[in-house]
Amino acid sequence: MMTPMRYVVLVLGIIISLHYILSFSHEAYGRATSISNIKEHIVGSGSGVPPYKVPIPEEYYTAKEVASPQGRKANAVIVMLARNGDLNGVISSMKQMEDRFNKKFQYPYVFLNDDDFNEQFKKRITELTDAKVEFGRIPADEWHQPSWINETLAKENREKMMQNNVIYGGSVPYRNMCRFNSGFFYRHELLKPYKYYWRVEPDVKFFCDLDYDPFLIMQDQKKVYGFTISLYEYEATIPTLWKTVKDFLKENPGLVEPDNAMAFLSDDGGESYNRCHFWSNFEIADLDLWRGEAYSKFFDYLDEKGGFYYERWGDAPVHSIGAALFAKKEQIHFFEDIGYRHEPFQHCPQGASHKKGKCWCDETQNFDYEWYSCLNRYDKMF
User: Fold this and answer.
1) Does residue 64 carry a pLDDT above 60?
2) Which superfamily does CATH assign the domain made up of 4-53+148-379 to?
3) Is the pLDDT of residue 3 over 50?
4) What is the rounded distance in angstroms from the CA atom of residue 159 to the CA atom of residue 123?
5) Which of 75, 121, 253, 270 keeps 20 to 30 A from 89, CA to CA?
6) What angle do CA 204, 207, 208 make, to 5 degrees?
7) How many CA atoms lie within 13 A of 314 on its CB side?
8) What is the pLDDT of residues 115-171, one digit of tens each?
9) Which residues contact 58 (CB under 8 A, 6 or more apart)?
């Protein structure tokens, strides 16, 4: 009998495959453009063991029955983008975060909104934690569609996406969010003091106790990007994204990290994009990756092309491409022991990790190696 998870994946896969077939002609653009001048910067598959298969050293774990926060901490923050109407979903996510991790470590929270948070939101949130909590408003020019976007063209393209039943195809607010998460959240005044962040969204689930500090793993092992779920992007939302990426790399070949993760993104050395990306609703990452010269130029280039609005470029593929090209592949980490669900997919730790984390998810309901997952491509890089 087909499990519910496999049924959801099958149905979603059929829908996405239909979008892929309908938009197949867009792929021709990638094969017509040479990238010979950047191939020397692209590293393919290597050999060895993926970093996540090396156990976390025991000294990182908290002692049993610890009643106070641990002493050594990274310069890190938990970030949530939410609106006042998301309160119940925010509380659900935050309560799980506190119970499974943050009551032991007490990292601060930053909440961001395109409007002012109301007093009820602030009161309910601050009652959930002893950690520092700050509430910030997003500058209007970082959230709304820029004036230089041709709205006539953008509207025509949105209508086409709606006709083709592309998810969020007609939504301008969704595009605003994707653009903000791609290029602005890390510039916010409230995040400037921090080096690392953990992105959390409303209505997600954390299945396991986390008795070590993942921020210290990032810091001590010089990781810059951490994920739990990876999958393929909808082709219909990014028809010209990879051509734009290649154009950028032609103009800026020196920005590519020599020991990069291009093999995760492409099966032919960068000629075409296989659509793999890290699902960015969960991220534990180094803010300096986005603040650096390479990604800053990369985002500005994408933004000028207008694909966030003329198409529906998501922050997940944009972040993933940025991390894969501008960081070493060893600096991208799969947090195998963090049980996580964002509808409709979940990562449920397996074996010893499931037991150690006292996870409450069903091990058989795990997306890692379903046919629409990209984790196998990540594994093959090492």
Assistant:
1) no
2) Spore Coat Polysaccharide Biosynthesis Protein SpsA; Chain A (3.90.550.10)
3) yes
4) 41
5) 75
6) 135
7) 21
8) 999 999 999 999 999 999 999 999 999 999 999 999 999 999 999 999 999 999 999
9) none
Q: Which of 283, 311, 330, 336 is catalytic?
A: 283
* Known active-site residue 283: yes
Cβ neighbours around 374 below 10 Å, total: 23
pTM of the predicted model, to two decimals? 0.86
Cα–Cα distance, 299 to 289 (Å, whole number): 12
Long-range contact set of residues 117-124: C-beta below 8 Å, sequence gap at least 24: 117/84, 118/84, 120/84, 120/87, 121/84, 121/87, 121/90, 124/87, 124/91
Alpha-carbon distance of 142 to 138, in angstroms, equals: 7
Q: Classify residue 10 as exposed, middle or buried by CB count within 10 Å of its CB (0-12, 13-18, 19+).
A: middle
Are the C-beta atoms of 136 and 190 separated by less than 8 Å? yes
Considering all CA atoms of the chain, what is the largest pairwise distance in Å, rounded to the nearest integer?
Answer: 61
- φ and ψ at residue 81, rounded to 5 degrees: -95, 120
Domain extents for the chain? 4-53+148-379
Length reported for the chain: 382
> Cα torsion at 200, 206, 209, 215 (round to 10°)?
-20
Contact 243, 33 (CB under 8 A): yes
> Is the bond into 344 cis (omega within 30 degrees of 0)?
yes
3-state DSSP: the chain helix, strand, coil percent, rounded to 5?
Answer: 45, 15, 40
CA-angle at 283, arms to 293 and 131, nearest 5°: 105
CB 279 within 8 A of CB 227: yes
Identity of the residue numbered 17? S
Amino acid at 133: V
Mean pLDDT of 80-84: 98
Q: Locate 241 and state its tokens.
A: 């994204």
Give residue 82's Cα distance to chain centre. 16
Which residue's entry shows tokens 């069903």?
Answer: 362
